[in-house]
Amino acid sequence: MDMKFIFIILMLSKALVDAKLNFWRDFASPWKPIINYLFLNDPGLIRVRKSIEVKTEINNVTTLDFIGLVERYNYSAEEHYVTTEDGYNLVIHRISGSPLIINNQRKKKVVFFQHGLFCSSDSWVTIGPNKDLAFLLADQGYDIWLGNIRGNSYCRSHVKLSPRDKKFWQFSFHELGTKDLSAMIDYVLNYTKQKTLHYVGHSMGTTALFILLSVKPEYNAKIKLGILLAPVAMWKEVSYAVHHIRNKIPKIKEFLDSNKIYEVLPLSSKSITMGRSLCANKAITQAFCASLMFLIFGSDPVLLNTTAFPEILSYFPAGASVQTLYHFYQNFVTHKFQSYDYKYVGNYKQYKQVTPIMYDLNKTVVPLCLFYGNNDLLAPKANVFETYRHLPNVILLKEVPYKFFNHMDFLWATNAKALLYNNVIQVINKY
Ligand SMILES: *[C@@H]1O[C@H](CO)[C@@H](O)[C@H](O)[C@H]1NC(C)=O
Ligand SMILES: *[C@@H]1O[C@H](CO)[C@@H](O)[C@H](O)[C@H]1NC(C)=O
Ligand SMILES: *[C@@H]1O[C@H](CO)[C@@H](O)[C@H](O)[C@H]1NC(C)=O
Ligand SMILES: *[C@@H]1O[C@H](CO)[C@@H](O)[C@H](O)[C@H]1NC(C)=O
Ligand SMILES: *[C@@H]1O[C@H](CO)[C@@H](O)[C@H](O)[C@H]1NC(C)=O
Fold first, then answer.
1. Could you say which of 203, 214, 239, 339 is catalytic?
2. Which residues line ligand 4 (CB under 6 A)?
3. Which GO terms describe its molecular function (predicted)?
């Protein structure tokens, strides 16, 4: 569910740049609502724990928080906090018990979930018990922890900086891997007094793991097994939509920078209201919502439950930095899996070398299971195979056995359990 909306943004921005619209001051611009949706963060989003607390006041949008999402099904949940070495305050969530497990007290094996681009810990529990992998594993007696990365809807806080500061948004998946992931893994292992954990990552959640293990290889010892859903590292090809706009991307970046836009698609009352109204079952615009998703992720009308759109779009997209998207762009243009390129002087300041850091996939020595979709536009087979070629310890490389399985199906497909999760659970049980 990662990079989907990037492309919409980029295409819309392209149209704007081309038209040289001064839309910021032009209230009559038809683009205004779209721009607001994509970039502006507005107040009015209220996280609640129980839906009965929801008031129907106009302008107030409420949505459940992670604990509310989980407790509504009688699973127990917790929220934990950790601060990264560079000052970002992160929220980690936990499903600590399942109603199907009688003795929730005994020491359990930890499974750590890391979401991808534009997602949050909510993305793992939006569909519900007996459907979402996180609930299924909790039912098997695992201790489920779910990470959140800097800048998403839960992690907009820093010891010094504010999300209004440019500096707050100067990060990409390099920092997610080297700083966020390491801090969260250390916290979870220390808290649970475990030596190792099982890692489940989706999309950029897999990229972050590769980076962590390449830059800080000592973390290999803390991970028992990595389940990588739609892994993203090496780029051999990009989808048609991206290819179409690739030459414009640097211009778009410039445009965003000059307009002081550092964040894209935050979760906000506006985004939720639009998602709930435009994509609802009775809305004539629902087909448009579906087409947009198919354009970005790959088309799979069969496994997409459009009835769940309003629910899904109450938690997604959850925000990302412009720099993160630009980092992906740099990687697919150079065909190199390397850190963000700040150019000569900037690189020296960041990395103490004038070139970006090359990530060495050969240092990922933990056993890995790679699952990919045949119709995934954001993690296409060619890229997954190229990544696979560089990995020294892949114990399973598997295509989900459904021809049209796309990037978001890993989280939302109506029968993800039969097609994928049962297999994942089997592997985790074995290790
Ligand atoms: C609901 O919105 C009104 C104004 O639109 C605001 O004054 C009020 O504080 C909001 N309610 C909550 C619980 O934030
Ligand atoms: C949760 O537990 C309460 C009390 O035991 C019960 O009334 C309710 O039906 C349960 N809810 C679900 C979704 O299982
Ligand atoms: C480890 O956890 C204990 C409590 O369980 C806490 O007191 C201690 O500060 C933690 N250590 C680190 C390095 O987080
Ligand atoms: C689709 O989503 C709705 C609303 O979340 C749910 O009630 C329904 O069971 C789902 N259908 C399938 C086939 O999963
Ligand atoms: C990867 O590591 C192994 C063992 O450490 C080494 O034998 C091999 O040459 C390395 N491959 C590359 C491409 O660096």
1. 203
2. 305, 307-308, 311, 414
3. hydrolase activity, acting on ester bonds
pTM value surpassing 0.85 = yes
Portion of the chain with pLDDT greater than 70, in percent? 87
Comparing C-alpha atoms, which of 212, 191, 187, 209 is closest to residue 199?
209
CA distance 139 to 161: 40
Output the residue whose Cα is nearest ligand 1's atom 6.
60
CB of 93 closer than 8 Å to CB of 274? no
In this structure, what token pair is assigned to residue 421?
A: 């999760």
User: Distance between CA atoms of 180 and 261, rounded to whole angstroms?
Assistant: 23
Q: How far is CA 35 from the centre of its chain?
A: 21
| CA torsion through residues 143, 218, 114, 265, sign | positive
**pLDDT one-digit tens code per residue, 178-219:** 999 999 999 999 999 999 999 999 999 999 999 999 999 999
Q: Residue 282 — φ and ψ, nearest 5°?
A: -85, -10
Q: Which residue type sits at 294?
A: F
Paired tokens of 347:
């690189």
**Residue 59 alpha carbon to ligand 1 centre in Å:** 8
Contact, 290 vs 68, CB < 8 A?
Answer: no
First to last CA, the chain: 27
